[in-house]
Amino acid sequence: MKLHVYSETGPLEAVIVHTPGKEVSLVNPDRREHLLFDDIIFEADARQEHLNMIEIFRAAMPDPGKVYEICDLALETLQQEQARIFFTDELIRSLPGTNIHLLREDLLNLDTGALLAFIVTGLTDSLPRATLDPAPNLFFTRDLAAVVGECIILSRAAKPARVREFLLMETIARFHPLFASTRKKIIHIGKQDSVEGGDILVASPEVVLVGISERTTFSGLMSISEKLLEHRVRHVVAVDMPKQRASMHLDTIFTFASPDECIAFPPAIIDRTNNITVFSRVDGHIAVTRRESLKKTLEELLDRPMTFIKCGGEDPIKQVREQWTDGANVFALAPGVIVGYERNTETFRELARHGYEVIHQKEFIRRWQDKPFLPAPGEKYAITFQGNELCRGRGGARCMTLPIVRQEEHA
Asked: In the structure, what pLDDT confidence band is assigned to residue 410 with cuts at 50, 70 and 90?
């Protein structure tokens, strides 16, 4: 399989996810903030909500669409001795303040299932005296990497709580055969920088957006911009954002619903100006320009009018409430076919005003379960699913998905 993503909304063909498991039940309320959670999650409901989301994907994806579970990929990867050595040695280097180095031989000798359990939950019966914090954020697979064109950016975590997840993704990308096509096109992040996948949006084959956020540093942005501009990308649009928990990544305040429609959180996107910098490849050099607004910038670079649909509608209080529960964080399965939490009712009302049929997951699946999903030209769907437990982790449908293959939209 040749991995490639040239837009945010091209028909989805392959995606990596992780359904929450035991690791979310191991979050001690006293440690939740250290583990980047505002609340604790009830595992059984979170699992079912996540599985319901995946069921939507399977109904909408073209045959033979693929939904990969990251733990399955990890199990296959860690069976390789080189991969186990790489992961273990990098883990030791990444956690210098622990005594994990004393366990090197034990970790290398664990069976693959026990090693993965230790990575994800911080526990394994095979090493009863060894414990780490759990890795409850693993279901936010988006942050771990980003396929841009035919390259893959391997993210570097901003917070120590997520180091193991990002390292696990790097190990998979380096050693799993699924990533063979990108192995020579890996973009790495410097050890002093951080870039997370939720800050990277592929607007077109030539235009990539990167948020300068709480989790992505300016130096990290500069590093990946230079490397992207060496490939097919012509413009990297840097979006300076509020550095706060509520808007930790660009995709928490801005996502694409179709090639010319976006969902935007008004205070941070529509109302904010002079926060855009464009890095462009011009005659072998990088030109830097300041821009007034994201909307005008996209319209100029993409050469088409753009519609920004307001997360939460017109009411400022509802805008803030629905951004808090990921109203702006939708995931596109195809142009004009998006998935999001049903609780964000005002956002879905806005989508309906813009021609989207708002449809519950059960009705969507019932309608398309016996035939291929082939929407007619102009048909647009906003598919809702319950996420009352999932949203406690502060991430929506886009946060929980790592697309690795999308059809090109002109195809």
From this structure: low
